Amino acid sequence: MRARELMVKDVVTISAAEASAQDAAKAMNEKGIGCLVAVDKDAVIGILTERDLLKRIVETCRNPRETKVSQIMTRDIITGNPDMELVEATRLMFKNKIKKLPIVEKDQLVGMITLTDVARATAVDEQTINLLQALTNMHKLEERQWHISIAR
């Protein structure tokens, strides 16, 4: 299966320079989604996830009305292409510890694949389920390791 067969084509985007963190949170809540692709003049320049909002707004007590998406988004995003095999896309997500993969063709955003999409679309065995759960909870493991190293 190729990425284009599974990807969601109606990806919600947000203007990185103009929109605030509050605008982003409102859009995510209204659409029931966990991330937005940040764009500038239709070019993909970043991604903003719920986790970014938690880490860079809530935890640091920044004002979401005054903070622009461009200040808190993840800039160095990993992208896939619509003709890549689904297994290749999944490996790319695991390797880079990401759960969402924007799909780009000719510098234009054409879709998005998430690990949830992959799990739903494939007949997963127990080992794959365990890998997906490990990746989903990776931030918890990293936080635990961080707390352990601080305590030492």
Features:
single chain; alpha+beta; CBS-domain; three-stranded mixed β-sheet; 8 helices
Explain the overall architecture:
The protein is an alpha+beta fold and 152 residues long. The chain has one domain (3-151): CBS-domain, CATH 3.10.580. It contains 8 helices and 5 strands; from the N terminus they run αβαββαααββααα. Strands 1-2-3 form a 3-stranded mixed sheet. A hairpin with a 2-residue loop joins strand 4 and strand 5. 22% of the residues are buried. Residues 146-152 have low confidence and may be disordered.
Short description, anyone?
The chain has 152 residues and is an alpha+beta fold. The protein contains 8 helices and 5 strands; from the N terminus they run H-E-H-E-E-H-H-H-E-E-H-H-H.
Structural domains: how many: 1
Q: What class, by secondary structure content?
A: alpha+beta
Instruction: Give me the Rg, rounded.
Output: 16 Å
The backbone outline, from C-alpha atoms, is globular
Total of helices: 8
Q: Helical proportion? A: 40-55%
Calculate the mean pLDDT score and round it.
86
Number of extended strands: 5
- Cα separation of the termini: 47 Å
Oligomer: single chain
Biggest sheet: strands, sense, closure? 3 strands, mixed
Kindly report the spatial arrangement of strands forming the biggest sheet.
Answer: 1-2-3
Uncertain parts: 146-152
CATH class: Alpha Beta
- The name CATH uses for the topology is CBS-domain
CATH architecture: Roll
Order of helices and strands: HEHEEHHHEEHHH
Beta content comes to: 15-25%
